[in-house]
Amino acid sequence: MKKLFISAAFAFALAGTTAYAAQPAGEKALNISFEQLLNQLKNSALNNIGQPKPASEIVGLQDLKNDDRFWVTVLAADKYARTALLELGLDIAEIKDKTVSGFVHKPELAALSEKGYVIQSKQSIYAYAKQYLKDFPDSDSAYHNYKETTELLQKLAAANKNIASLFSIGKTVEGRDIWCLRLNTSAKGEVPSSKPGALYIGNHHAREHLSNEVALLYAVYLLEHKNDADIKTYLSTLDIHIIPMLNPDGVEYDIAAGKYRWQRKNMRVNPDNSIGVDLNRNYDSLWCQSGASHYPAAETYCGPAAFSEPETLAIKNFVEARRNIKTLMSYHSYSGLVLYPWAGKDTPLENEKDRKVFEIMAQKMAAFTGYTPEQSSDLYVATGDTTDWAYVNGGIFAFTTELEGNSFYPGPEVIDNAVSNNIKAALYMLSVTDNPYKLLQ
Ligand SMILES: [Zn+2]
């Protein structure tokens, strides 16, 4: 049903384009209404639910016949077993009481069996994909892709020149600009600001398209509600940065030719000709020690070195140049979780004050979304992620939100809640960004 979602998203993007083009030259107002946009997204998605197409009519599905990945369910009793599975290259997408499910390449699947892991079920990615026939975009279906995301950000910036500015924080492996929309009533572009800063990042992982939509619509919402009392205060007292699509190369690859490829990593060509580094294992925080793989073809490949990838290096340079950043949210999908450090250590945060702030913030944000707040490593230990690095190196209260849905390509029914509730949580984050420690008072 992702198809429906993205078609709708594109319809909205087109509507935005039309509305914007109709503005007289010099007109500052941007005729994109958040409500309209969300309704369009929902309604158009709901109106378009049709019968699944036969496999033969799905463009690109045949290609997956040559893909060596399997969707497997493996017995894993606890977080230690889950961490070990990540290290063996299983890309965990779902966690149940005693099992995990996710993608694994054929050679790593053999290794799992050899090591004695009990594989409850397995199916080829082709067989797995066939269950989601409705999710495949038609060859002619449009997508809220990198270009449309870029154009929308440009329009938002152009229509709100007194608040918003847009700049690239660096280029990807394939040379695409990584866009950052900045909202600040005094400083623009890359000019430093002493105002407390908040950073929102989407799409570390390519196939997690909902994470781009949440961040983008959040930007639209903030600008549309710029005169609401609370938001007006945030805009004038804070330095807000939104990077909705960190991994556009992977996003484009995932949707190229009107099909999905379940791409997680970036588009680095590794020495063994496999594709991609897992950007959320490539940060310099106990890099590649637990829950990550040194094997390039693995879905959890940490790269040849910390910050080997231009996408993560861009975040490093960006954050290190902005010591005013106090809070950070990295959007992923899917599990319905709000996670905080440690991700890479199997112990609670040593600093009790900080741990308390993390816990309170996670609980408050989870209350808006209905997600589960918890320390990241309670699920499994994974080193090299964004949040541990941001906390250690910048003292930043950094979170991972795993959005809702039961697939990387969720149906239209999750859009409304995912966007609306996560905006509330994101606004809550702004409300404490001036001084997160005030939560302890
Ligand atoms: Zn992710």
Q: Can you put this structure into words, describing what you see?
A:
- This protein has 441 residues and is α/β, with parallel strands linked by helices.
- The chain contains 13 helices and 12 strands.
- The strands form 2 sheets. The chain has an 8-stranded mixed sheet, sandwiched between helices. The chain has a 4-stranded antiparallel sheet with strand order 2-3-1-4.
- Strand 10 (337-340), helix 11 and strand 11 form a beta-alpha-beta unit.
- The structure holds zinc ion.
- Zinc ion is lined by residues 204-205, 208, 280, 332.
N→C terminal distance? 46 Å
Total beta-strand segments: 12
Number of helices: 13
Structural class: alpha/beta
Q: Which CATH class of the largest domain?
A: Alpha Beta
- Proper CATH architecture of the largest domain: 3-Layer(aba) Sandwich
Summarize the structure.
With 441 residues, this protein is an alpha/beta fold. Helix content is 37%, strand content 17%. Strands 5-6-8-7-9-12-10-11 form an 8-stranded mixed beta sheet, sandwiched between helices. A 4-stranded antiparallel beta sheet has the order 2-3-1-4.
List the helices and strands and how they pair.
Elements (H helix, E strand, L loop, with lengths): L1 H20 L12 H14 L21 E7 L3 H9 L3 E5 L3 E7 H9 L4 E6 H6 L15 H14 L4 E8 L5 E7 L13 E5 L7 H16 L4 H9 L1 E5 L4 H8 L54 H11 L4 E9 L3 E4 L11 H18 L2 E4 L10 H9 L2 E7 L11 H19 L8
Parallel strand pairs: 7-8, 7-9, 9-12, 10-11
Antiparallel strand pairs: 1-3, 1-4, 2-3, 5-6, 6-8, 10-12
Helix pairs in contact: 1-2, 1-6, 6-7, 7-13, 11-13
Bound molecules: zinc ion.
